[in-house]
Amino acid sequence: MIEINLVVNEKPYTLNVEPSERLIDALRNRLGLLGTKEGCGEGECGACTVIMDGKTVNSCLVLAAQANGSVITTIEGVGNRRSPHPVQKAFVEVGAVQCGFCTPGMVLSAKNLLDRNLKPSETEIGIAMSGNLCRCTGYDKILRAVKIAAEEGAK
Amino acid sequence: MKKRGIGLGCSWYGTGYGNGFPDVSSAFVEIHDDGSATVLTGAVDVGQGSNSIFAQIVAEELGLESQDICVYSGDTDATPDSGTTAATRQTYNTGNAVLKAVRQAKSSLLDYAAHKFSCPTTEGIELKNGSIGVKGDPSRQMPLADMVFQARLAGERFISAESSTARSTPVDPETGQGAPYWPYAFGCQSAEVEVDTETGMVRVLKVVAVHDVGKALNPTQVEGQIAGGVTQGIGFALLEELELHEGKIKNPALSSYLIPTALDVPNIEALYVEDAECTGPFGAKGLGEPAMLPTVAAIINAIDDAVGVRITSLPATPEKILQALAEKKRGGEC
């Protein structure tokens, strides 16, 4: 077992993890943060996206031990029902959610884009969201929601 | 060289199981003494939004808001069977069962209310904005919750169970005669593409999609279904191929079976036509699968329009397009 220290959603944790344990398993099984979804388990679909030290990562491709000393944001750390993040608000407003399995990853990719770039172009939004696959929505409303959130944030 | 072209695709699609297969949906409804209602159905909402549709149907009938309706769905211990979420059938078929059920519960409520308001018939009883009363008589109105509460104390309950079966007869294999599906969905889409004649790559620049939905019960969901269908259609036309080897799938992963990403989707203009389907709930019919069908034909026709080659097997990969262009050149048609 390896002892790691990390900050998840602004809370510090010390965990004893298996050497082969993935970050997604530590988040879901040890911390009970079930908002992070496992889609393909091979870094293709982006459902397991979390923000690690300011960058989006596929938490299925990161070992928990590699996350030692890092600061992580999962979907549980982004807004809530009473005060949703502007990205979440825009997703609800335009109806950018269908089955919802990709949504946590989508929201985190969008949030991370807007954290770094207040006025992204349509191409920049497309590139930022292209690592997250969605089979239901056709991306149309998702891209529109990110654009609305960017416009709201820039005001 | 990059060449552009425009193509059109049209579709008609029989919704429901079809060919005489029993296509049955069922629903339970209860109107409660707090002015809310619950609907139970076996229909599974996989993201297309059937739960919202059922809440809307019940709310519309009872003069409530859809947030006043609690939908329990897809619980085999508690909900009645409504068949699969397949065949573009839940809004139409289970929607019909929910509508029949809420009307049945409402009918006993109206009987009780007519008696309470000393009306000879239920004719003039109106459910509106959470109230129940006699149309045009402000003195005989009360909150729906109060009426159901009074009824409850008097031992009355407004609970119903209904089912709805879609019209379908098998096709006679000898004559080809029969009425296998009802209703049919119609759609038309046009696509603009850009074909790179050096690489064979196709980019879809724009898709305009128009679908006859009978009645759009939830326009946001209609747009979402169309955009989702168009994007799956783009995958079907250009990217997606299930490769089999001796019955085994060779590409069972998203790294080898490519589906469209946010960068592959064009500007999608989702439009709909409302031509009420008289057998559907409030005129609605299904849209799910039909939204992806015309996309494929529109894209293949647009490729033909752009570079003059006919692709006859899907997906239209760069390799197939380059091969077709080379054959065309050899044939001297250029």
Q: What would you say the CATH architecture of the largest domain in chain B is?
A: 2-Layer Sandwich
How many runs of DSSP E, i.e. beta strands of chain B? 13
CATH homologous superfamily descriptor of the largest domain in chain A: Beta-grasp domain
The helicity of chain A comes to 25-40%
Strand order of the largest sheet of chain A: 2-1-5-3-4
Mean pLDDT of chain B: 97
**SS field, number of helical segments of chain B:** 6
What is the top-level CATH class of the largest domain in chain A?
Answer: Alpha Beta
Give me the Rg of chain B, rounded: 25 Å
Number of structural domains of chain B: 2
Biggest sheet of chain B, open or closed, and with what strands and sense? Answer: 4 strands, mixed
| SS element count, helices of chain A | 5
Structure description:
- The complex is a heterodimer of chains A (155) and B (334).
- Chain A has 155 residues and is of the alpha+beta class.
- Chain A folds into 2 domains: 2-77, Ubiquitin-like (UB roll) (Roll); 86-154, DNA polymerase, domain 1.
- In chain A, 35% of the residues lie in helices and 16% in strands.
- The relative contact order of chain A is 0.16.
- With 334 residues, chain B is α+β, with helices and mostly antiparallel strands.
- Chain B folds into 2 domains: 2-15 and 181-330, 2-Layer Sandwich (Aldehyde Oxidoreductase, domain 4), CATH 3.30.365; 24-165, Aldehyde Oxidoreductase, domain 4 (2-Layer Sandwich), CATH 3.30.365.
- Chain B is 30% helix and 25% strand.
- Chain B is built from 6 helices and 13 strands.
- Chain B has helices at residues 50-62, 90-116, 144-153, 219-239, 293-307, 318-330; strands at 2-14, 24-31, 37-41, 69-73, 125-128, 131-134, 141-143, 158-165, 184-196, 202-212, 244-245, 248-249, 267-273.
- In chain B, helix 1 packs parallel to helix 2 and helix 4 packs across helix 5 (293-307).
- The longest helix of chain B has 27 residues, at 90-116.
- The two termini of chain B are 14 Å apart.
- At the A-B interface, helix 4 and helix 5 of A face helix 4 of B.
